[in-house]
Specification:
two-stranded antiparallel ribbon, 2 domains, alpha+beta, 53% helix, four-stranded mixed β-sheet, 201 residues, single chain, elongated
């Protein structure tokens, strides 16, 4: 694909052509790009020149880290685009119409923002809004059901432990009561014996 087609494809998938922010990310991309050397010689990345000739990332962040190949970039080719070499990982400038692979980078979405993302997408895209709204409602329903089950089981565990504690207390009282009753019975029988002995004498 050309650079412009690659940008369009990345934007449609919710991202943009990749930026490379540090050597670690550059090494990661180079290692993985090397796996595709049989399919393409390079990949478009998200560097472009603005109207002032300044090179920026597609997300308009500054170009703080660079990994240019030898003799790159050429100042006389301002309207050219940047590829990452699949063989070396170095960057070079090529005509934007060249057919290359491309690497998209998508922003991380926090799980709790997923529902909000679905909702805002539903407003933007009327064709899919009905489906997105159902997905949002299903997600909310699943969360509510999960919370309901969790509360139910916590309540059930709490009441079971309270019931077991009451049963143990009743058993303890019953045992104590039985012990007291036996002692009283023994005293009564001893007193009866003594009375019988006294009456015989």
């Amino acid at each position: 694909m050309s650079w412009a087609q690659s940008v369009t494809h990345c934007v449609q998938s919710g991202g943009m052509l990749t930026s490379v922010e540090d050597p670690a990310e550059s090494n990661f991309l180079a290692e993985h790009a090397d796996l595709y050397t049989t399919k393409t010689s390079g990949f478009w990345i998200g560097i472009y020149r603005n109207v002032n000739g300044q090179m920026l990332w597609q997300d308009n962040s500054a170009l703080d880290f660079v990994n240019w190949g030898e003799g790159q970039p050429s100042e006389d080719k301002l309207d050219y685009c940047v590829e990452l070499s699949a063989f070396s990982g170095y960057w070079s400038i090529l005509p934007c119409s060249s057919q290359k692979g491309f690497i998209c980078k998508k922003p991380k979405i926090h799980p709790f923002l997923f529902a909000l993302h679905l909702f805002t997408d539903a407003k933007k895209d009327k064709a899919h809004s009905h489906m997105n709204m159902w997905m949002l409602l299903t997600l909310v329903l699943i969360i509510l059901l999960g919370m309901g089950f969790m509360i139910y089981f916590l309540f059930k565990i709490k009441t079971q432990s309270e019931t077991q504690r009451e049963v143990r207390q009743q058993n303890t009282r019953l045992e104590y009561s039985c012990v007291l009753t036996r002692k009283d019975d023994e005293k009564d029988s001893t007193n009866d014996k003594e009375k019988n002995e006294q009456s015989i004498v």
